[in-house]
Amino acid sequence: MIGPLFTINRDNVVRAAIAEVAKDLLPDTPVEVAARPHENGVGALILVADSNGEGHEIVFRESSIADCLQQADTRAAAQDLIDQFAGEVRRSVDEALG
Question: What is the 3-state secondary structure (H, E, C) of 37-60?
C-alpha cells in the first residue's frame, strides 16, 4: 500500500511493484527481479530471470502513469497500477521457478 508521500512516477511505481513481489520471496529464491530503462527512454522494463539467466521482460509504459494521473483518485489508481504490475511480475516469477 502506498503512503501519502508517495510520488506517482514511472520509477516509483516500478520499484513498488517489484517490492510487492520481493517481500514474499525467500532470500535464496533462485530468481532475479530487476528494472531498467526501456531503450525508447520513456518506458521501463521489469526483468525476471531464473538462475540460468533465462527470463521474461515486462514492459511498463509511461502512458500508464499519464492515465493514472488523469483519474479522480490518483492514489487509488496508482495502487491499482502497482498491483497490476506486481501481478505480472508474480506470474513471471512463478514461470521462472517452474
Answer: ECCCCCCEEEEEEECCCCEEEEEE
Strand partners, 42: none
Instruction: Round to whole Å and give the CA distance between 1 and 66.
Output: 20
In the block, residue with C-alpha cell 520471496 = 25
Q: How far apart are CA 16 and CA 2, in angstroms?
A: 8
Condensed to tens digits (0 to 9), the pLDDT of residues 8-51 reads 998 899 999 999 999 988 888 899 998 888 777 667 888 899 88
Cell of 85: 504490475
* Per-residue pLDDT tens over the stretch 69-88: 999 999 999 999 999 999 99
Closest-CA residue to 98 (of 52, 35, 57):
52
